[in-house]
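Milestone M4 deliverable, item 7.
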Amino acid sequence: MKKLLLILVFLLGQVASAQDSKRACNFIIAVDEDIALALANSTIILSQGNNNLRTIHFNYYPGNLSMNQTDYDEIMQFKGTILLKFDYYEYLKGQQKVMNYEIEMGKIWFEQPYLILNIYNTNKKKYRKLESLKGKEYTFELKYSTGQMLRVRKK
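Output delivered:
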């Protein structure tokens, strides 16, 4: 009886640890040319139309975006829109400002050896020549191992 109980405990432990396996991507986020050291409320939202079907929380530190393997598998099989959403805190002249970002992402972002996401706030003088995303005051550019995606600049 003791052997059966030990085997059962061992198997349950294996199942629990298998569910906690992580998937990490080499991912750097920079806001206005400063590497984001921390993000708040960092989620990936899976949606179709106007319906948010699932919210996936992820961990981020410079160079690493990680989540549970099951969440990663769900993203890779999803057929709708994938949104990267997070809050970024910036300190200007002694005051804290919270900026909310929501960027549509592709599955291929997770398959790159590395990805650098540069976000530019177009309401700042330095970045006014960049075309902002529709209805937003920011835009983004990507750099990855096989190329880059740059935004249109105003004349």
